[in-house]
Amino acid sequence: MIQIMKANDSHVKGISSVCIRAYWATYGETHSKEWIEKVIRVYNRARILREVSESNRDWGGYFVAIENGKVVGAAGGGMIDEEIGELFVIYADPDRRNEGIGSGLLNTITKQQKEEYGAQSQWVFIQKGNMKGIPFYKSKGFKFQSENIPKVYPEFPARIKLRYSREV
């Protein structure tokens, strides 16, 4: 049985592992090895340990999906405006997709943002070409709002982000 809970220090290694493996599974065929290795550096032990211990309106902390003591999913979000929450990160073990792990994590963060922080809407950035994430968010009621093309290297698709939102 999968349990969703607030992450603590004992979950740091599992959060790092899930995030790194899921990023590779999502972008391994569409992004260069160099790009992926650059991005996944943020999922290092020191940073995650710091982020696990933080929890405030801007960063609600990490939540984890646990099964038999193992982290099988991780997510986090926060408030970006008075009534706007944002999902900053959400990953499920790539071997466990379509089991409800992402849905459980999203529901938990949404509840936190609504009940603790007063969110009326929720936003997410999704990398263009993420054909695992986009259908997931659409199925949860998120609607496309805009495309964020970077001023530097606009032709580099790994940098283009799509903005989606929903009312909560």
TrEMBL record:
Highest rank taxon of the organism: Bacteria
Gene3D superfamilies in alphabetical order: 3.40.630.30
Coiled coil location: none
PROSITE patterns associated with the record: GNAT
Record-annotated N-acetyltransferase domain positions: 2-163
InterPro entries named among the record's database cross-references: Acyl_CoA_acyltransferase, GNAT_dom
Name used for this protein in its record: N-acetyltransferase domain-containing protein
Species assigned in the record: Oceanobacillus neutriphilus
